[in-house]
Amino acid sequence: MEAPVGTVSIDISAGFDGLYWGFMLATVLSGISIVQGWIYFNNHDKDHWLFRVFVAILIMADLTTTGLDLKVLHFCLIENFGDLASLTVIVTKPVIWEFILTVATVFCVQVFFASRIYLFNKQSVWLPVAIIFFGAGALDLASKRNKILFIINGGCAAVADIVTTVSLTWSLASSKRGFKSTNTMLQKLLVYVVSRGLLVTVTQVLFLVIYLAWPEQLYWAPIHFMASKLYVITMVAMLNGRRFLREPGSDVHVVSTSSLLSNSVRRNQSILVRQTVELDHFQDHLETKRSTGKEGTDLVV
Q: Are 23 and 224 in contact (CB under 8 A)?
C-alpha cells in the first residue's frame, strides 16, 4: 500500500521486533520463576531464613527486570509514538537500571554456585574465587556506557559460567563412591549441572555474537531479557530438585529399616508366643501325669 501524498513512510518494525519478542519471552519466564518460587517456599521451610530471604530477593529482582522491560516498551511504543527522534536514543534510566539489575542477579546466582563448589572441595579455593572475579568484573562493567566494555561484560559472564560448569562437573565426578544410591544421585546432579551450564553459557555466547553482528539493532534484546530469568529458574529448580533426589534413596533406607525392625519384632513376638504356648502345654502335661500317677497309686493301694 502506497503512503498518502505528503507523508513519509518509515518502517521501524525491524528495530523493535527484538523488544517485543524479548518482553514476551521475559513474561513467560517470569511466570515459570513465580511457580518455582512458590514450590520452593512451600516445600523447603527447613532452609535457613537468610538463604530463603536470598532466594526471595533474587525472584523479586527478576520480576523487577520484567517491569523495567515493560517500561522500556511503553517508552518506545506509547510515550513516544510517532516521535522518531526520541526513538533513536532509548538508553533511558529504566534501560540502565534494568541492565544493572540483570547483571547483578546473574552475579548473585554465580556466587551461589561458587559457594557450592567450595563446599564440594574446600581445597580448590581458586575455582570459586575465579568465578566471583569474572562475575564481579561483569557486574562492574555493567554500569559503563561503552560498547567495548559492554562486550567484555558478556565475555566475563560467559567465562564465569564455563568455570562454574567445569568445576561442578569435576567436583561431582570425583565425589563418586562405591554406594550405588549415592552414585545414582550424583549422576543425576551431574546431568543437571552440565545441562544447566550449557544453557546459560550458550545464552551468554549467543548474546555476544548477535550484539557484535548487529550492534545498532535490538536483535540481542530477547536473549538479554531472558538472561536473569534463566539463571534464577535454574538455581531455584535445583533447590526444588533436592526433594526428588533425596526421596528415592531415603525411602529405600527408611522402608528397608522399618521393615527389618517390624519383621524382627514380629519374629520375636511369634517366638515368645510359641515358647509360652509350649510351656503351657508342658505344664498341662506334667499336671496330667501327676494326676494320673496319683490315681494309679490309689488303685494299687
A: no
pLDDT tens, 74-113? 777 777 666 665 555 556 777 888 888 888 899 899 899 8
Distance CA 178, CA 181 (A): 9
> What domains does the chain contain, in order, with CATH numbers?
13-255 (1.20.1070)
- Show Cβ contacts of residue 34 under 8 Å, excluding neighbours closer than 6 positions: 59, 63
Return the C-alpha torsion angle 211, 217, 221, 223, nearest 10: -40
Contacts 24+ apart (CB under 8 A), 132-138: 134/159, 134/160, 134/163, 135/106, 135/107, 135/110, 135/111, 135/160, 136/107, 138/103, 138/106, 138/107
Q: Give the pLDDT confidence score for residue 52 in this predicted structure.
A: 94
Residue listed under C-alpha cell 515368645: 272
Q: Give the per-residue SS3 of 109-175.
A: HHHHHHHHHHHHCCCCCHHHHHHHHHHHHHHHHCCCCCHHHHHHHHHHHHHHHHHHHHHHHHHHHHC
Residue 180, pLDDT above cutoff 70: yes
Spatial contact of 19 and 221, defined as CB atoms under 8 Å apart: yes
For residues 8-33, average pLDDT: 79
Please write the tens of the pLDDT for every residue from 252-288. Answer: 333 333 333 344 444 444 544 455 545 555 455 555 5
Q: If DSSP states are collapsed to H, E and C, what string results for 56-113?
A: HHHHHHHHHHHHHHHHHHHHHHHHCCCCHHHHCCCCCHHHHHHHHHHHHHHHHHHHHH
What is the four-CA torsion angle of 72, 79, 27, 228, rounded to 10 degrees? 10
CA 104, 115, 195, 243: dihedral to nearest 10 degrees? Answer: -110
Cell of 183: 552414585
Look-up of cell digits 531464613: 49
